[in-house]
Amino acid sequence: MPTLPNVEPRGMQHCETTTLGVLLRHEGLDLSEPLLFGLGSGLSFVYWDARNMGFPFLGGRVKPFALTRNLAATLGLELQVQETSSPRRAWQHVVALVEAGRPVGLQLDSYHLDYFTSKVHFGGHVVALYGYDERDAHLVDTAQQGGAVSTSLAGLARARAARGPMTARHRSFVLTSPGGLPAWERRIVPAITACAGSFLNPPIANLGHRGIDKAGRLVRTWLQRTDDPGRDLPQAALLMEKGGTGGALFRNLYRDFLAACTDLLDSGHLRTGHRLYAEAAGLWPEVAALIAQAGTSGDADCLERAGTLLGELSRLEREAMQALSRLGSED
User: Fold this and answer.
1) How far apart are CA 262 and CA 104, in angstroms?
2) Is 265 within 8 Å of 204 (Cβ atoms)?
């Protein structure tokens, strides 16, 4: 059974950037995780509280797979995506790609993967498959999950077939660079300004800087929002810091992306954006800690303080993105 010998199973902090790293290194392009995240215009914010959810969710990035589509468009890569309702056809497609020497990205529900110890349904999880045998599939996942990992073929099939929020229909994908390796340095400005534009002009109040401001108002009510604050609030805080975000709800990754860009571009707007995101990245862990403390102590004052910090973060990030939206306007 095939296992690709030339795949470096380098686990990063976030699942989608980990998979993108595997696929792009196979094409000869080795980018750091902050560059993958930033060139994919990955930063965002969402306050999500649907009727079928037990507790609100704070997200810090664009929706699943949008980062992959953004990165492919920004770098001029060919993104080949396959989806089907047939498990048999879905697996045949993956087998054909691996036998042709290609690692394959898969979107699935992490709940069904054998190596996941935290059994929570998340249909937006992404892994890279680089081999299989008669029993197991060989994957690359985040460093937190082990990097090079294996899961049963049966578990993988269940993960790919799962239905629910953020799931896809057995989605698999590969990236190719038909025109040779892209000059990614020339795509920094479009990637940053696109991200800033979306963040500053969200279509609904739950997204972008408006979403952070809304979270600042609603987080103060979270003790009344749940029957088990000792479970739900610390879990929400844990996801902000440890749920594949790289810490600070993806702000650490974007801060480091902007820092790398300042080495390549001489721009006052860029330096301003980097400075403000460095400040924001220092405040998000404080918000998470206050939310967790409120859950364990029942102290509503912790949520008041978290709400105040979120209001400040909304302002900071709005100002940062306003500066970044003007990137490239200097002579």
Assistant:
1) 33
2) no
Q: Which of 61, 103, 108, 114 is nearest to 244 (CA)?
A: 61
pTM for the structure as a whole = 0.95
Question: Domain residue spans in the chain?
Answer: 15-30+78-176, 184-325
CA distances from residue 107 to 48, 160, 161, 177, 221 in whole angstroms, order as listed: 21, 7, 10, 21, 34
Q: Which listed CATH number (3.40.50.12500, 2.60.120.330, 3.40.30.10, 3.90.70.30) goes with 15-30+78-176?
A: 3.90.70.30
pLDDT per residue as tens digits for the range 230-264? 999 999 999 999 999 999 999 999 999 999 999 99
Q: Model confidence over 264-295: pLDDT tens digits?
A: 999 999 999 999 999 999 999 999 999 999 99
Within 8 A by CB and 6+ apart from 226, the residues are 54, 55, 232, 233
